[in-house]
Amino acid sequence: MASKKNKARSARDLNPRKFKKKTSVLVIEKVEYIDYKDVDLLQRFMSDRAKIKNRRVAGNTLQQQREIANAVKVAREMALLPYAKRVASTRTGGRGRDGGREGGRDRDTSLSDDVNDTVVDDAIEDAETIDATETEEV
To answer: Is 0.85 surpassed by the pTM of this model?
Structure first.
């Protein structure tokens, strides 16, 4: 008697998923040599955060992926490509550093509020000193 484990496996073998293998950009453009100075080509194999895309996503063969990875690493060392890109994002809700407690000020807004308050306080003090000097002159 066959176990459940073997039945599930046999069902998968009967109907395997058919997928089309992604063709590499290198094959399409007939690139023979991957040069570390060719930044435009290397950026096509990098994500928006400057990570190297994996083989499955890029559609490269193992040898092509190794050559691309080595070229990207050399280009990063030569400062032609960044190691990482900073992505600006705003926090939306969720649990912050305070563990979800209410009443605590957000770290991002507290700094900007303090700066704005200081600027306003300085402007008020400057206006008061100007008023004081004008009354003394009269």
So the answer is: no
